[in-house]
Design brief:
rod-shaped, 36% helix, alpha/beta, 5 strands
Length: 137
Amino acid sequence: MAIGTQDDSDEMLAEINMIPFIDVMLVLLIIFIITVPVIKHAVNIDLPRASNEKVLDKPENIRLSVDADGAYFWNETPVQDADFEQRLASAAAQEPQPELHIRGDKAVRYERVALAMAAAQRAGVRKIGFITEPVAP
């Protein structure tokens, strides 16, 4: 079936209906006008890079362990709550300051770990880290 004019000539109509193309272009233009301000107003942040390297314990690091009962262990030596804050203050006074690595049992109450962190902050310890077990593949 050929598209033609109303007269009986065998010539084909060489015109294309441009209205649907114009409609599509206007819709795309509206979409770009709406999305460009959203892209420009995004917050620029520099995301940290995580690695799964094993952290090497330096001799000056303090390993604070909290067992399931909530008892503190300073480098595998049991320590009472009263002595704990004194040890933290002496560690904070060292130069360079050692890192405090907290190893909390998963069954311990969060309160005991939070108390240890608050005591470390009061003592002036600037570097606190949490040690976890890696997930088995």
